[in-house]
Structure formats: structure tokens, C-alpha cells
Amino acid sequence: MQKDASLADDLGRKEPIVPRSINYLPLMLLVTPLTSIWWGAITDHNGSLQLSVTRFLVDPRASLTWCFLPSHDIGVAFAKWIFFEAILYTVLPGRVCAGQPTPSGHTLPYTMNGLSFFICSVISFLLPAALGWTELFFIAKNWRDVILAANVFAWLLTCLAFVKGRIAPSYKYDNRGNDSYISDLWRGIELHPRFGAAWDLKIFHNGRWTMTALAIIDISFAALQWEIHGYITYTMICVMLLRNLLIVNFFGNEEWYLCSTEVCDEPFGFYFAWGSGVFFPTIYTLQTQYLAMNPIELPLTHTILILSLGIAGFMVYYIATEQKKAVNDTKGVHDVGDEMALFIRASYTTTDGVERESLLLCSGLWKYIRHPNYLGLLILTYAMCGLCV
């Protein structure tokens, strides 16, 4: 294996970064309190982000009065849930799959226990409510404190990843650190931070508990809609159905995720920890948050039409991803539709000196659209938003 100080140059990170990294500091300091703006838009301004931003600009103190630490009870409950999720990730069995080769040539094992993790997590959330120990709308009713707890957790995770990357990196020749502490906090150091041989921090954070959180948050806000208004709208049901199509598909075909940019190319820093742990579960569930407070019910024909559009978007995403994976898994032997797969062979050399190859698909849906998988997700997302107007 190559052990060269120039490895960081090959990874594109050794550059005059210190002056420019100052720009990351206000981003890290501001995004945490600004999470109040989108929730304030729903609770105080009938969903108007413009009014929420205007209020913040006029009186920042009034908008940010609660943006400090979560209440003790919510903080403890959040910590217990994360600990429980970590135990599930550790003990649940699953087949082992190999990831993509890292820049230094490592091929890492991943335990594919996502679907069982998702099922166990949802049951564990529903069971206490069924036994009368808590309420299903507990998360929704304490949403502000939950957001704060998630922010605190993201910062703690960022610091943990920073210290680990500096002191005990799992694969130091894959590191993407710089001379700037600020840059390393923001962008991250380790590409694949692990505890032991297989406990992958990146997979647990973005590929386990946050993906599961989407479904749990939706359930909680649906329960809040029932609590406030006495019924659940068809629009709420359709939004949850579309989102769970993505979630179940993600866990049922999670080998796809091992080839994603997030796993292969993004180091674990604040950008990843906060983006996956705060931005992702709060922004991606805005539809159910809004519908809980504003029980919009569309005409049945409109609801069916928008739901069908969302399902069509999901099918575009699924087919495009399946075509790409099948061709790469079979090294181009797999047919796409009724025709032989057309692709571009893209060769590259990892820093251990081994020449490797990736196939860029040029047939099927990929013949007509540059990123059909992204297009499908956009259509599905627009459909979920369309159910809220």
C-alpha cells in the first residue's frame, strides 16, 4: 500500500485552505439557531417562510429565544433513543456486503441489517404508545426540543469524528484532513470512520437512525393531527405512503447506498453530521409537520392524481437505479430492457496502485436523461409538496 505524504494531494484536499476556512465558521454557528425559522413558519405564520424570515430579521432575539439547549427530559429521551438505535445496529444480524474500494484500496464489509433495524425501531416506537406509557404525538408535541437535541447530538458527533480522525483514524491513508481545524470540523477528516472492523459511523448515522426517523416523525405528526383536529386527512396518508415507499426501498435495497457519493466521497464532519442528523429529518418531513397544523384536504380526484404522479416518480427512480446497479454488478453483461447495455468504461487507479474500472451506463433511462434517478426523486418530492396546497 502506498504510504506517501502526497496522498492528500491525490484526494484533492491539500490546498491553501486556512484563510478560506474562516468562511465555514459562521455557517457552523448560524445553521443551528436558524433551524427555528422553518418551524416558526409552520407554528406562527401559517407556513409562510417569508414571514418567518422577516420576523427573524426584525427581531432576531424573539425568534431565537428557545435556540439553546433542549429541556432535560427531551435531552435524556433523545440520548436513550440514540443509544437504543446503536444497540440495534450492533446486534441485529444481516448478510455482509462489500463496499466500493476506498481511495487507498480497502474494500470494507457492511452488515445489511437495515430492514430489520427499521421494523424493530418502528415497533419499539409504537409499543409504548399501545401500552399507554406515552403518546404517539410525543415527538411532534415536543418538536422544538427534539430539534435542539438533534443539533446538540450533531455537534457532539462532529467533535467525536474530529478527535477520532486526528488521533485514531480507522484508515489514515483515506483521510482528507487539512491544516485548518475549522475546515476539518466542517468538511471532516475520515472518509470511513469505524469503531472496530465493521461498526460504521457513517452508515449508522445516515443509513440507519435518521432514515428510520423520517417514518417515526411522520407517524408522530399524523397522531398530532388526530389529537388537534379529530381526524387524519387523506393528504397526510398519501404523504406518508410516498415517503415510506422511499424508506422501505432504501432498506430493502441498501446495497445501492454503498455506491453513493455520501458513502464513497464525503468525509464525516459537521457538514455530514448536521446535514444528515438535523437538516434531513426536519426538512424532509415538512409536509407532515405542515399538515398536522393545517389539515388540508384536496378533492379526491386531485389527491389520486398527485399520488399517482408521486408513485410514477418513485418508479422512475427505482428503475433507473436498478438498471445502473445491474449493469455494474454484471460488468456490463446484463441487458437493459430489450437491448444490450451500452456503457462507457471509466478506469481509475487507487492510491495502492491497483487499476480499477467503473461503468457509466448509456442505455435504458440513462440514454434519455442524464440523472433519471434524481428526476424520479424530484417528481416524488413535488408530489408530496403538492398534497399540501
Question: What's the structural blueprint in terms of helices and strands?
Answer:
Elements: H1 7-10, H2 18-21, H3 24-31, H4 35-44, H5 49-58, H6 60-63, H7 72-91, E1 95-98, E2 109-112, H8 114-130, H9 138-141, H10 143-167, H11 181-187, E3 194-195, E4 199-200, H12 201-229, H13 234-252, H14 261-265, H15 270-283, H16 286-293, H17 300-329, E5 343-349, E6 355-361, H18 372-386
Antiparallel strand pairs: 1-2, 3-4, 5-6
Helix pairs in contact: 4-5, 7-10, 8-12, 10-15, 12-13, 12-15, 12-16, 13-16, 13-17, 13-18, 17-18
InterPro entries: ERG24_DHCR-like
Main location: membrane
Keywords: Cholesterol biosynthesis, Cholesterol metabolism, Lipid biosynthesis, Lipid metabolism, Membrane, NADP, Oxidoreductase, Steroid biosynthesis, Steroid metabolism, Sterol biosynthesis, Sterol metabolism, Transmembrane, Transmembrane helix
How would you portray this structure in words?
By secondary structure, the protein is mainly alpha-helical. The protein has two domains: 7-32 and 67-297, no CATH class; 301-389. Helices cover 60% and strands 7% of the residues. The chain contains 18 helices and six strands. It has helices at 7-10, 18-21, 24-31, 35-44, 49-58, 60-63, 72-91, 114-130, 138-141, 143-167, 181-187, 201-229, 234-252, 261-265, 270-283, 286-293, 300-329, 372-386, and strands at 95-98, 109-112, 194-195, 199-200, 343-349, 355-361. A two-stranded antiparallel sheet has the order 1-2. Strand 5 (343-349) and strand 6 (355-361) form a beta hairpin. The longest helix is centred in the last third of the chain and has 30 residues, at 300-329. It is globular, with a radius of gyration of 22 Å. The chain starts with 6 loop residues before the first helix and ends with a helix. Residues 1-14 have low confidence and may be disordered. It is a multi-pass membrane protein. This is 7-dehydrocholesterol reductase. The chain crosses the membrane at residues 21-42, 115-134, 146-163, 207-224, 231-248, 268-286, 298-320.
